[in-house]
Amino acid sequence: MIETDILIIGAGPTGLFAVFEAGLLKLKCHIIDALPQPGGQLSELYPKKPIFDIPGYPSVLAGDLVDNLMEQIKQFQPGFTLNEKADTIEKQADGTFIVTTDKGTKHLCKAVAIAGGLGSFEPRKPLIEDIEFYEDKGIEYFVKDPELFRNKKIVIAGGGDSALDWSIFLSNVASEVTLIHRRNEFRGALDSVEKVQELKHAGKIHLITPAEVIGLNGAEHLESIDIDENGAHRTIKTDYFIPLFGLSPKLGAIANWGLEIEKNAIKVNNALDYQTNIEGIYAIGDVNTYPGKLKLILCGFHEATLMCQSVYNKLNPGKKYVLKYTTVSGVDGFDGTRKEAEKAVVKSID
């Protein structure tokens, strides 16, 4: 039986940052994640994709952000149960919880923080004959390593931010980038749409709309695709086809825990501490929903901070909590030890 103060379900950026905030409050954390490594979607789907809205970083690669978060929490020595899914939860008479994974690992904790992002997810695949045959043979649903497409001809399909962002990024990597969308209008950010149009006029992106891919060709590896362009059929030679139609998220077993669910997200009380309808269970990051919710990493960081404050107050009733800023604590930076970090931020007075 693994024992901890806060059991965090999900090792994405929000879950990792929660470890840091909890550590400053002298709360021990353990993390469960279905993936074999920390980082969530940032590690699994787009480790080489730049992120532009993290405070203090004009641009940071998703994988580098994960590395930095792991370095930041190392001083608090969190535990990890990786490659396992949280399966069942039992609330004990004393208010603690026992969470068991799909592989039978049991965790005893005083609070649960669900930070599962989109939950378990699968790519939404286009309905094209023989598409499974070409998976890993020219069909890629995620861009994990842009170097795979170095000096290659690629076709991207989709109309959202991922399709636009990767078309822009890979225009400087691939020898030829073609972006196909079934409509003339895109759903992504306006600045991304404008950038794609600029690259189209510069000859760095071939933009085909309205159109959709209807066939795949190649004996052992993808060699070309068939498209329907406004009723006219033609064939385009390509080395890779990347359909980016989003993810199909699923909460998995967590959906059976008695939590209030709305549109595949967990409802929380954002007026206080992001607690669910079950006392002691919180949901932070993209997995939760509330009025005005924004699915941004920086919002998840904020939610993780308030969640940790709430858990601290529940576990330390009667103690007066005094917050200190690290910049005025008298400590010139952390020396890598848990003791120094704790002194830098928190002082509890009986």
From TrEMBL:
Subunit structure: Homodimer.
Co-factor: note: Binds 1 FAD per subunit.
HAMAP family, A to Z: FENR2 (MF_01685)
Domain of life of the native organism: Bacteria
EC number assigned by the record: 1.18.1.2
Lineage of producing organism: Bacteria, Pseudomonadati, Bacteroidota, Flavobacteriia, Flavobacteriales
Protein known as: Ferredoxin--NADP reductase
Cofactor(s) the protein needs: FAD
Keywords, sorted A to Z: FAD, Flavoprotein, NADP, Oxidoreductase
